[in-house]
Amino acid sequence: MNTLGYAILSVLSRRPCSGYQLASYLDVLWPAKHSQIYPLLNKMEQNGILEFELIKQTGKPDKKIYSITDKGMQILKSWINESPNEQIKRDEFLIKVYSMWLTDEEHARKLIEDRISKLEVKIASREIKIEEVDKDHLTTTSKHFGRYVLLCRGNLLDKEEISWCNWVLDLFETPSFRCE
Length: 180
What we know:
This protein is mainly α. Helix content is 59%, strand content 8%. The protein has helices at 3-12, 19-26, 34-46, 70-80, 92-98, 105-132, 145-173, and strands at 17-18, 50-55, 63-68. α2 (19-26) crosses α3. The longest helix has 29 residues, at 145-173. It is elongated, with a radius of gyration of 20 Å.
C-alpha cells in the first residue's frame, strides 16, 4: 500500500465519508487528485480494507460512503508504529525561484509576491477550520487532535515561508546574500 492509502485509512478511521469529502479531508495530510483517490478506494475495497454503503440519490449520481474495516484498522495501527520515510518536497515554485535569474526583476518579484498572496489565502482558510475545532474538549486522545495540530503546523510553516519570501524580496533592494 502507498502513503496515500494510509492517508485515506487515517481519515476514514475518524469517520465514514464519500470520496468527495475524503479529498477535502486529505488536503491537510496528503493532497491528492480525485483521479488518484477513486482507483485506490476501489482497490482497497477489493482487498477488504474498506467497505462502502451505496446511497441512492434522486437527480444525482448515487454516492458511496466509505468506512474502514477491522482489517484496515489493523493495517493502519501497524503502519503507525513504523518509522516514516524521508520527507519529499516537490514544489514548482522552488524550481522557478532557482531559475529566476533567467527573467527580469519585475517578473521575479511578481513570482515571490504571488506566492505570498496564495499563502495568505491558505492561512486564512485554515484559520476558519482551526476555529471550528472544539478546543474546550480537545485532548491528545481526541480524534480531532491530529487534524488540529496539522492545521496549526500548516499555518506556522506558511507564515515562515512568507517571512522567507519577504527576505528574498529584501535581497532585491540590498543584496547581502547571507542566510540569517
